[in-house]
Model the fold of this input.
Amino acid sequence: MTDLPSHTERQLGLVIDLDTCVGCHACVVACKGWNTQSQPSPLSDQDPRGAAPSGTFLNRVHAYEVTPQTGAAQVVHFPKSCLHCADAPCVTVCPTGASFKRAEDGIVLVNESECIGCGLCAWACPYGAREMDMAEGVMKKCTLCVDRIYNETLPEQDREPACVRTCPAGARHFGDLSDPESAVSLLVEARGGMDLMPEQGTRPANKYLPPRPRDSWEGEVDLLAPWLEPVAEEPRGLLGWIDRTLARL
Amino acid sequence: MHPAPSLILFTTLSGLGFGLLAWLCVTLSPPEGMAALAWLALAYALCLSGLAASAMHLIRRERALKAFRQWRTSWLSREAWAALVTLLLGGGFGLSLLLGHPLLPLGWLTGLAALGTVFCTAMIYAQLKSVPRWHHGSTPALFLAYALTGGALLYGQTWPTLVLLALTAALQIWVWIDGDRRLARSGTTLASATGLGTEGSPRALFPPHTGSNYLLREMVFVVARRHLLKLRVLAVLLAFALPAALLLATAVSYFNFICLALYVAGVLLSRWLFFAEAEHVVGLYYGR
Done:
């Protein structure tokens, strides 16, 4: 049923640190790699080596430039995937029940064999978290690697989403956001984690940690700077003789 | 939003069909015998071809019947049920017309169900908070106005048609003007989308991918924004001004084919604009 559960026992999700993300896209590749082989159908690409390649991705990394009132602009890399919202608009619009939110852990999933490919859930999502797989004709989305996190055949340290496991900067964290004592909840508390588009009323589970203020160079004196000044303004030695001779000509 | 031909045809044809059905069922002197059959056949042909066009929008058409399941939450599912119930009720009323004993209360019920179907169709779009231009009470009002106007025109009701043409035109023009402000009014900006507003003013620097993707093709359609005014004027001329002028000039109550052709062309254009103009907030992530 596409009713949203009134209560979820847990709410698993991601915490993404915009301060440490370096924009390497490793999470994008890891996500594509894992989910193209673990789902009922691969995450297809169309014309992958041709003139206009296009494909299905569950995670994409944008980049923004933030210009403060004073000081220099700052680049922020911005990974974006499904936010597993408490009031997920994508779930309630689904006419077939293919789209659903799990009561046990709050993960929003698509049952591929029930999807008619109408695309209405992708329209309802304000974040662009759902993409139609043009080969399979069904909607694809982040599963929070539901086939990894409970998978007892994997080593303990691999039982987290592929994007989190692969992030070389430690910018992605996975855990239970409904538990105020969990590591991710404490991180959100400490760093002022925020919701995306709170005015849309989706109550997303995933939180974003804002970038910390950067250092500024204005008014600062670098102790080493004087030592980096060019030592010889005028050329000396052989080069100096050539310089003087050429100047006399 | 991408103006998919299947959806433009679906909303236009089914709107006309259910609008005609509503007029047929609530009129005080309904047609009888073979005339009733012909009118009902026309209404059903329009409704069914519209619904067929909507099925063409599905990629997995073989699973289309699953769309009836989630009527408790989904307007798309409710629309499917409403269409089915209307066509069944209309069949019953049609039979009573054919037999020469019109069951008028059944007709009123059918008319109500026909308008309910158009309402459900509009709510599929109006429910989407992610598309501020659509997320407004005027969306179902406009769909109902177009359906009633088209039905009246098809059924040859000259004076109701003229009144409805004027009302629908006024509503449509207001919706265009007000719609232009709805994205700004929704409060969703790149700053709220990224949460980076407190640090300064964000700007999309480079996209996550070099090529296009499903999101850009489906929800970030910007082609229409260049010629909006011209297309709106053309739509008003085709859908409202010219049919009204023709109706007034000839002042005949019978079926006017040119009027209808102009009106349908105008509705098709206004529906193209309805989709093409609509801004989905995901476009903000791409700086569009």
The CA atoms of residues 23 and 246 of chain B lie 21 Å apart.
